Amino acid sequence: MTLDLAPMVAVLQPFLGAWIMVFLRVGAVMAMLPAFGERAVPLRVRLGLALAFTAIVAPAVGPGLPVGAAALGLSFGTETVIGLALGLVLRVMILALQMAGEIAAQSTSLSQILGSVSMDPQPAMGRLMMIAGLSLAMMSGLHVRAAEAMILSYEILPAGQFPDAAALADWGVGQIARGFGLAATLAMPFVIASLIYNVAMGVINKAMPQLMVAFVGAPAITAGGLLLLLLAMPAMLALWQGRLLILFAAPFGAGG
Q: Of 159, 185, 181, nearest to 254 (Cα)?
């Protein structure tokens, strides 16, 4: 029987090697991909998702992959590094939402009042923005965009080759900087409102020293922060969704 199966093994070996190489990169991306890579998702589910994405990506890129023993052994390092780098850049978009929520909560004094104890401790405002962003991403076809980005990555970063360290560092730093800039942009309405509020409280306290501005100002900033969140959240999420789609469309050259 072994002799009968030998020809079949010889035929399937290149395909199996290509699938292993693809799985290494896809699995690393899936570990950090928004929504699919959340720690709340069970490990077995994430493994199943990684296998499903491998089944999608492998037929598109498999024919051009080097499947020799040396290339396959090297791919355990190269594909993992490339996958983690791509996944980290995509993950930055979720971190931008979390940072924006934390900045907004600190600016409006809601970080302590509406704090959240969860797997990822953060203010409730940041948690709300993150969940809303993930929902929008899934509605926008996140799985399709992710598969396209993984397939595109093989054109920019060929399999079996370590990426240039300097270029990879510049690309990563640039994307992280854009993420921080996006977070600051999203939280800017709350920062401006907080500045105006504190200046107004200072003027009132100077004009009427006998007035306990803390008792008046604390409820006002809380109500104002919630009202501003209600008004600004749709525009903030629309801006974030647009940036996310741009990043998925051109992960190696997305503009700010």
A: 181
